[in-house]
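Lab notebook: predicted structure, single chain.

Context: the supervisor wants predicted structures on file for every construct in the current expression panel, including those that have not yet been purified. This is the next one on the list. No modifications to the sequence; it matches the entry in the shared construct table.
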Amino acid sequence: MEHTDERTPAATALGEEPDPAAAGHLGRCGECGGELDELRRAVASMRTPSLTDQDLLAPPAGVSTSITEVLSVRGEPDAPPVGGDTSEASAV
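Prediction complete. Output recorded below exactly as produced.
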């Protein structure tokens, strides 16, 4: 049995319409159809973030305030020294 070329399942997963012969093959061939299903799942997961992905993108409200309170940080941190570290530890 002759399978579709490598581009056809990928292009189909991305939304292109395959030619009628390739479409028929993708529907009949378990190997090519399985590859298409895997590619469709991959494309869908990249297009639609899961709830877990959304949670990673935006921290819960108030998290910055909580962190600064725990660390007792007030205001904006000082800018690092220009020209490198000038702390006493670096001179030792």
